[in-house]
Amino acid sequence: MYKSTMPTGFPENFLWGGATAANQYEGAWQADGKGISTAEVVMKAEKRTEMNLGNITLADIEVAIADATDENYPKRRGVDFYHRFEEDLALMHELGIKAFRLSLAWTRIFPNGDETTPNEAGLAFYDKVFDKMAEYGIEPVVTLSHYESPIHLTVTRNGWLDRATIADFNRFTETVFKRYKGKVTYWLTFNEINTGTFGFHETGVVDAGLPFDEQLQLRYQALHHQFVASAIATKQLHEIDPDAQIGSMLARMQTYAATPNPADVQAAQLADELNLFFTDVQVRGEYPEYMNRYFATHGIKIDMAAEDEAILLANPVDFLSFSYYMTTVTSATDGEAETLGNMATGGRNPYLAASDWGWQIDPVGLRITLNELWDRYRVPLFIVENGLGAVDEIAADGQIHDQYRIDYLRQHIEQMREAIIDGVDLMGYTMWGIIDLVSFSTSEMSKRYGVVYVDQDDAGNGTLNRQKKDSFAWYQHVIATNGTAL
Ligand code: BGP
After folding, report:
1. From 121, 197, 284, 467, which residue has the greatest number of CB atoms within 10 Å?
2. Ligand 1 pocket by C-beta < 6 Å: which residues?
3. Which residue stretches of the chain have pLDDT < 50?
4. What is the pLDDT of residue 30?
5. How would you class 34 by CB atoms within 10 Å of its CB: exposed for 0-12, middle for 13-18, buried for 19 or more?
6. Which residues carry out catalysis (predicted)?
7. Which domain holds residue 88?
8. Domains contained in the chain, number
9. Span from the CA of 432 to the centroid of ligand 1 (angstroms)
């Protein structure tokens, strides 16, 4: 619907906030009956070299599960939000955030995933968290699956590759939608669902050693099952709680052409389509034609049940959420693996600086991607991850002067405001890692994102005490002035 009035800045109800994920933040990863998830297997740092996302074997998984008794292992599982949630939510209340994004660990509620009776201790934990958030007037933004599928489903049936996992997941979603009705308004289905093409962490599918096209066949089939499960969850939520909303969640990786050469522009268009394929299915409700060509090229055939296409078309999501860290570059001479590699590292753009981990920093790219997503889908958008992973040092005065993080956040928030003035319907912004937590790609603490520092090192040593960084007061003022004082 065309809007003739031009906004001048952030809407009054803009959801300023912060984001986390159970496997990187909660700790207590086997407490009170919780099962082991895919993320907890992947996250064991010393196994990471052998267990990068595409080369995990069942033997590696057995080793990681056996190692799980390693006393360091639990500390790598986050920063103990499980026991410190009241302290952390009080800090978020002081910060003044309107929304806090967290994920439910499926394995706290159904430890193996295939049980029919939920684990009450798991349900009760999130009840306490949501009740405390309600006291503070902080809206939960809840991710149903953040790389945290039960490892039991991988070991028994190769995870999401087996269609039976749809029913298990939708038993979990129905359980939590009913349990938390009235407490949670904003739900997200699968975190960065597009990264399922990179391997194990998203779908729990073990395909180590297979030829690339065979790996893609398994991954896209597993992702199809997630699309169906996401659509069923959307239908369930609308029936259980008509006042609640559910969104897709994409790792948005805007791809630029390396040169104005039309061959490079076409290569960038394809790379972008392989990213937007996921929101095409979840927001438009159907597979796009350009994927027929891609699937044919790779010999991929998606096995759909008769009812699948109708389920997808009838149950598109209510909003589109995404993470934004970088943009990438590709050219006609890049192979697909190299393009995927560029996505993981941010490619090579001579006009952009990079973080300590090589992720290229592109604030204007956020405005570009906001306008493109709004123009393509015309549904409300929600940035549910953005931030700077950096090494934070405690200075001689005992403080953490993270001006580099303030600069990064300011530059991206400025571009969000420009996009809103361009006419984009942007619901909110939950910066990633609002309180320091474990980095997913590195399994380490040293890649810090928060406005609150947590005393824990890469080996899991430390008091876990929390300390405000300089960026805490800065972000607090941004929120208090609704983004006018940057
Ligand atoms: C995204 C994940 C988050 C978080 C973030 C930062 O891909 O959705 O869970 O990990 O990346 O990346 P990292 O932790 O690897 O620095």
Report:
1. 197
2. 21, 24, 191-192, 251, 323, 385, 389, 432, 439-441, 447
3. 45, 50-51
4. 86
5. buried
6. 385
7. 15-481
8. 1
9. 8
